[in-house]
């Protein structure tokens, strides 16, 4: 059986193209499973997983939980707001106490870039990064690649523009790594103040004009402005942002082509994307959410297989 090259999923930059292909092919099989009347398989009935979320989440937390339950794993979920972290317990103490309950895998979201990597070096469990600050969100990039492949046949050769707050976006960075590894071309578009200075060093070009970016691309991935990470001095005001970078049906209708519109959520309707675009024919936003369950099943299953092989 093919296996991943890694024992943890810490970021796309730590895996390779074969790993991505294996995850997406495995997700194909799980997508068939979750579309059956009986949506569960017994594969991981001997595995226990803790989901520990130190930042808010709807899609990622729930779809990891559902993916684990569809695989018959034992699951416990934890939000820092209701935990003893509030009493000053450290991350390593928290996780080691959870692992003392015979937990095999930890899925973690944290506000600090590198938190998942740090944890992988200090505790004895397989670690999955569910988003670490502005660093990486690998399962979002994998489900985005899965969705592009599903809608356009393949990722190789496709032109993807990521629009918005690139500077604070872990989704952008993970997508850039994943898309390039699979042979796609990537541009970014947004206010210059929200584009990292190192963007060209990643082999990505900056297009400041939204219409030109959309005329070039096959897929537009629209990102939310991350006000919670924003220093206000970086940024034009919301009205100016929407005028320059907001995607409307009028803009889509004036293009000479059809494009796929993606968004990782949560959406700020009327800011980066209007409701008629978010809910319209070009949008694959809910397909992304649906595919997230199959892709996360694949990630959990493949990492758990490595745990079992080590026993
Ligand atoms: N896309 C994403 O990470 O959404 P949540 O923050 O709701 O998990």
TrEMBL record:
It catalyses: carbamoyl phosphate + L-aspartate = N-carbamoyl-L-aspartate + phosphate + H(+). Residues 8-150 form the Aspartate/ornithine carbamoyltransferase carbamoyl-P binding domain. GO terms for biological process: 'de novo' pyrimidine nucleobase biosynthetic process; 'de novo' UMP biosynthetic process; amino acid metabolic process. It comes from the Bacteria. Residues 157-302 form the Aspartate/ornithine carbamoyltransferase Asp/Orn-binding domain. One of its GO terms (molecular function) is aspartate carbamoyltransferase activity. Catalyzes the condensation of carbamoyl phosphate and aspartate to form carbamoyl aspartate and inorganic phosphate, the committed step in the de novo pyrimidine nucleotide biosynthesis pathway. Belongs to the aspartate/ornithine carbamoyltransferase superfamily. ATCase family. This is Aspartate carbamoyltransferase. It comes from Flavobacterium urocaniciphilum. The gene is pyrB.
